[in-house]
Specification:
This protein has 220 residues and is of the alpha+beta class. The protein is built from 5 helices and 11 strands, in the order αββββββαβαβαββαβ. The radius of gyration is 27 Å and the shape is elongated. It starts with 9 loop residues before the first helix and ends with a strand.
């Protein structure tokens, strides 16, 4: 009698087995305005009597930031290396076509689309008063819109520079302008302006954009 020995393929000798798990964490950054960071890594060992020596791999998830410094929000966490983007569109099916048009033209004139968050209420108010002066006539149904936002460090007072506007914006006192420095002002539909502000506030909260955090503004 003859015998033949056959070596089974590796996959048959050591079949794949799916394993999964999860990791959870808590934060000590719970005091008002507290911010904490976590750098995490996992060493995963693979052990099997049929697969030879044990091996392991290291996984390093993105850095985590937890805070109690997001205005209007309870303690929460984000990946701070991700820069969130708020999008305004001039389509009439969305809230704010006038605001989107203003932002798009302001950016086309040279004002950056990446801003940094400002949370100090007094500075936010000052940015708004410098950009949207009381002397500017508000036509019926319109209100003053500024870009960069008053809630950013690039706002009219904290960012500095000269104002600019566009022919349709109904502010004859302000000349057109271009370049990185400065800010843009425009009279837009009041309802749209309010909805755009509400959307911005929700964006800040959902993405936990705290003071000095970068964020992007896209208008299309």
């Amino acid at each position: 009698m003859r015998y033949a020995l056959f070596e089974l393929p590796f996959a048959a000798r050591c079949p794949r087995v799916h394993r999964e798990g999860d990791a959870q964490f808590s934060t000590t950054a719970t005091n008002p305005n507290a911010v904490g960071f976590s750098d995490t890594f996992f060493n995963v060992w693979f052990l099997s009597p049929c697969c030879g020596p044990s091996t392991y791999i290291t996984s390093e998830p993105p850095r985590t930031r937890c805070d109690n410094a997001t205005p209007g929000r309870v303690v929460g966490c984000v990946f701070p290396d991700y820069t969130p983007t708020i999008v305004y569109t001039d389509s009439t099916q969305y809230c704010c076509p006038d605001v989107a048009r203003h932002i798009r033209q302001a950016q086309t004139s040279g004002i950056p689309g990446t801003l940094t968050r400002l949370t100090d209420p007094s500075l936010i108010d000052s940015n708004g008063r410098v950009a949207c002066k009381d002397s500017y006539l508000r036509p019926p149904g319109y209100s003053c819109d500024e870009y960069p936002f008053r809630s950013s460090w690039q706002g009219a007072r904290t960012g500095g520079g000269n104002p600019r506007t566009f022919p349709w914006c109904q502010i004859p006192q302000i000349p057109p302008g271009s370049g990185l420095a400065g800010y843009s002002v425009c009279m837009v539909n009041s309802t749209q302006n309010g909805l755009a502000g509400t959307a911005l506030g929700s964006f800040y909260g959902q993405n936990r954009v705290i003071d000095n955090d970068p964020f992007r503004v896209l208008a299309n």
